[in-house]
Amino acid sequence: MERTLVLFKPDAVQRGLVGKILSRFEEKGLKIVGLKMRVFPEELLRTHYEVHKQRPFFEGLVKFMGSSPVVALALEGKDAITTTRTLMGETNCAKSAPGTIRGDFGMSFSHNLVHGSDGPDTAKSELALWFADPAEVCEWTPQQTTWVYDVEEEL
Ligand code: IDP
Ligand code: MG
User: Fold this and answer.
1) What is the per-residue DSSP string for 33-85?
2) Whole-prediction pTM
3) Measured from the CB, is residue 70 less than 6 Å from ligand 1?
């Protein structure tokens, strides 16, 4: 089982898409192990997007991410990182395939609704950053687990 960080960006919250986007992940079979909403501190946002700090869009991105509440999620599942990225679609919403979150709900490159960790190392460091307090992460077994997965082959 893998864990990954997902963020619903300010545009998703402002447009009232939290429920719809959350359903995509839940209905797929990913397990929510952490969920919180707030306007996150600028310092955290800068650290989160540090890899892009030389890029021309960096300051605008940090400002946008701090402009309104963000929903932060820790999701768990088999191949949760790539599964999440597949559900999200590609970075530019306008070019994202129908059926993906960005493809179905967005038009913008920068206001692209969701973030998802892009690999195991990033997932680990991003979860440590956004869910630093272990009390915010729930260990639980959904009743439906054995119906989502083939226990003998996949768990
Ligand atoms: P990702 O979110 O699909 O992983 P990244 O390349 O890691 O995409 O970029 C991080 C975020 O920065 C994007 O989700 C988007 O909000 C923003 N971004 C990336 N490239 C551009 C750009 O060229 N113009 C404006 N915003 C951008
Ligand atoms: Mg990225």
Assistant:
1) EEEEEE---HHHHHHHTGGGTTSTTHHHHHHHHTSS-EEEEEEEETTHHHHHH
2) 0.97
3) no
